[in-house]
């Protein structure tokens, strides 16, 4: 009588199963991480496109106001000034003066920024390169729109500071980091708007300059 041979075990052991499970989990986590990064980049692109459209809207409002060039000093508005801080005139019911029209436009525009972007803020400032130019000869406004990105604090700040001016040697002067710079932990979009040139200041001898529109 021949001795019975022990049957050889087949299949995988518990340790091999655990190793396969860990490798699969790491692969899935890697795929999820890539998807989350792609989603965050897509959101940033969409938000930036919205910021560009908002700045274009402000430019259109400036073009509608024929006296925008004479009232350029009325446009600057820092991050701290929200729509709720502005008391606009009702230009839809009665005709507004150029100054009232600017206040009305700023209120409507800042309200749209706050409602469109997450924690949206906007700063409008006179271009630093025109600091020494007479008020009636300034032609450019700078606009920065900032919003809160879906990132951890300290990792999402854009290095934008419009107060830096390029020197003759190509270097930049130190920025003032005020209303013409990107706040911490935010994504920003900077754009410059030329003041409409279809109306020019005209001195008719009165106490205040008027606008002559062709």
TrEMBL record:
The keyword rRNA processing does not apply. The chain crosses the membrane at residues 12-34. NCBIfam families: type_IV_pilV. Coiled coil: none annotated. The keyword Phosphoprotein does not apply. It comes from the Bacteria. This is Type IV pilus modification protein PilV. Residues 34-106 form the Type IV pilin Tt1218-like domain. Keywords: Membrane, Transmembrane, Transmembrane helix.
């Amino acid at each position: 009588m021949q001795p019975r041979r022990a049957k050889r075990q087949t299949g995988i052991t518990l340790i091999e199963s655990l190793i396969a499970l860990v490798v699969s989990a790491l692969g899935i986590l890697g795929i999820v991480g890539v998807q989350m990064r792609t989603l965050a980049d897509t959101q940033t692109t969409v938000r930036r496109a919205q910021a560009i459209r908002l700045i274009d809207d402000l430019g259109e409002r400036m073009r509608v106001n024929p006296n925008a060039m004479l009232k350029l000093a009325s446009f600057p508005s820092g991050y701290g000034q929200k729509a709720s801080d502005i008391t606009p005139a009702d230009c839809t019911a009665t005709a507004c003066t150029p100054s009232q029209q600017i206040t009305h436009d700023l209120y409507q525009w800042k309200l749209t920024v706050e409602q469109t972007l997450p924690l949206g803020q906007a700063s409008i400032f006179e271009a630093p390169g025109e600091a020494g130019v007479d008020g009636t000869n300034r032609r450019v406004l700078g606009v920065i729109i900032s919003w809160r990105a879906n990132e951890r604090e300290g990792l999402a700040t854009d290095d934008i500071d419009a107060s830096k001016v390029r020197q003759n040697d190509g270097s930049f002067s130190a920025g003032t980091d005020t209303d013409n710079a990107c706040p911490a932990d935010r994504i920003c979009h900077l754009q410059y708007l030329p003041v409409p040139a279809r109306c020019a200041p005209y001195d008719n001898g009165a106490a205040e300059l008027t606008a002559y529109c062709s």
